Amino acid sequence: MTDADTTHSGSLPPLHGKVALITGAGQGIGQGIAFSLAKRGVSIVAVGRTLSKCEKTVADIEARFNGKAVAIECDISNLDALDALVSNAVAAFGRLDILVNNAVTTSINTLMETTLEDFEAGLRVGPMATLRLMQLAQPHLIKSGDGNIINLATAAAKRWDTSTYGVYAAQKEAIRALSRGAACEWGSMGIRTNCILPLAKSPALEMWAQWRPEEAAAFEQTVPMKRLGHCENDIGEFVAMLCAPESRYVNGQSIAIDGGQVNMG
Fold first, then answer.
1. 3-202+231-253, superfamily in CATH?
2. Phi, psi of 172 (to 5 degrees)
3. Is 165 a catalytic residue?
4. Catalytic residue among 35, 165, 168, 186
């Protein structure tokens, strides 16, 4: 760990001592965000459907950064379980300063092939769970005095051809709208809410590449930087910067972290 990782104007890093709840933290982008925050002294509540994956994230945080972290098993599509999730997260470290809504499930299908059950499942894990977790976290983030909500959206709605991606895009665009609403309603309360639209070599993206190899290869070539992002070094580091005091005037934004692929317009 470098001096830049451990010092800030001769003292502890500005995020040191804060607590972050991260859904989908057992792998991929959620795990990368957990690592980048942990290296700055943030205590991590790693949440996911598979406890063993979250426990691996916790073990890595302890080994790499000598950090504090706990794993909580929770299927966030069970909206009734979210009250207990937030309560347990706050009980683990006594506070909550950062909420990262990263977990996702969806179906990539044509509109005619999409069932209402599939659409509803994506809504529950996506905008419905995101809204409920924001509502439950809000009082704790106000108490923090410097609360941050980072919601994950997608550039799928910005694709030149959204065939088979319409349902996924709709679910994620709802999250962008909720994020903007929270930014406007809660900004004066000391809570900043932003969306990121990441592109990284995550397990989900690798599964998609195996499923649609020709489309994935062509897709990667549309990235001006000609590479896919790294879950920790690219996405996680940006999220850490977004939570830091240096970004204190950034609120209500949707920011693509994708090597220049998408024109947010």
1. NAD(P)-binding Rossmann-like Domain (3.40.50.720)
2. -80, -30
3. no
4. 168
